[in-house]
Amino acid sequence: MKLKIERPLCFFDLETTGINIIKDRIVEIAVLKLHPDEKIEKKVWLVNPEIPIPKEVSEIHGITDDKVFDAPTFKEISKIIYNFIKESDLAGYNSDRFDIPLLMEEFLRSEIDFETKNLKTIDVQTIFHKKEQRNLTAALKFYCNKKLENAHSAMVDTQATHDVLMSQLEKYSDLEPSISFLSDFTTRRKIADFAGYIVFNKEGEECFSFGKHKGQIVENILEKESGYFGWLLNADFPLYTKKILTQIRMRKSNLQKK
User: Fold this and answer.
1) 3 within a domain of the structure (yes/no)
2) Would you say residue 2 lies in a domain?
3) What is the C-alpha to C-alpha distance for residues 204 and 223, in angstroms, rounded to an integer?
4) What stretches in the chain show pLDDT beneath 70?
5) Is 88 within a domain?
6) What's the confidence (pLDDT) of residue 258?
7) Does residue 157 belong to any structural domain of this protein?
8) Whole-model pTM?
9) Does residue 237 share a domain with residue 142?
10) pLDDT at position 171, please?
11) 15 with 143, same domain?
């Protein structure tokens, strides 16, 4: 079944120094860009993370400090990556919970404000878990009857993710081949900041999903407790979460001025 897209869809995968979206860094990024006319472009970048890659992590993806020593930093190639994926929707495997939040952190650290207003995302892992409950290797075997060679190589995993989604569309007649449907289907909950610290309630209002103010409307808390905003900005939260909090606070301030 042909995937119906109106603008490019970028399948991507990250290899990183770890799984902490605040502290860890990208060491490799691969992107498979699918255009509406079915043209496909592929790009892979090795990245110097500027921090040591733990030995146990290198043993998983095979990327060592020596391998990325002469590679550019993310900031040095951030504009190239941004220009390649901007105005596209994004798809990945476990991407909503990890790859996208970490990618947005890297962009913000590089002083690039990635526009997400019209961004739709597809997490292929969610389709798989809702339908079959397996990992990427099993997904490729189940849907495509292929063996995943060199798992944890960014482009290998990216290509596998693309292949699995195309096979999922063929297998499940209730999956509509549209970005809007797949984005809604794979979104576990409506979140405002990718990392899930700020979620939308049934009325579409941003609410905290953690701590003493869990479930409460962000605007109301920031208005009542001005010191809480300062604490959030200085605490160990993702840069993108802090960006969204600042936008909410400024929006409230602008409304009050009017």
Assistant:
1) no
2) no
3) 18
4) 133, 254-258
5) yes
6) 56
7) yes
8) 0.73
9) no
10) 94
11) yes
User: What is residue 256's predicted lDDT score, i.e. its pLDDT?
Assistant: 63
CATH for 135? 3.30.420.10
Give the C-alpha separation, 47 to 15, whole Å.
10
Number of domain units in the chain: 2
86 shares a domain with 57:
yes
- Dump pLDDT digits (tens) for 53-85: 999 999 999 999 999 999 999 999 999 999 999
Q: Strands 40-46, 26-34: parallel, antiparallel or unpaired by DSSP? A: antiparallel
Q: Which domain holds residue 168?
A: 9-186
Angle of helix 124-131 relative to helix 136-144, nearest 10 degrees, comes to: 70
Give the residue from 147, 49, 149 showing the smallest Cα distance to 102: 49
Residue 250: is it exposed, middle or buried by C-beta count within 10 angstroms (0-12/13-18/19+)? exposed
Shared-domain flag, residues 209 and 96: no
Exposed/middle/buried for 28, CB within 10 Å: 0-12, 13-18, 19+? Answer: buried
Q: Which residues contact 224 (CB under 8 A, 6 or more apart)?
A: none
Q: Fill in the amino acid letter for 38.
A: E
Same domain, 59 and 136: yes
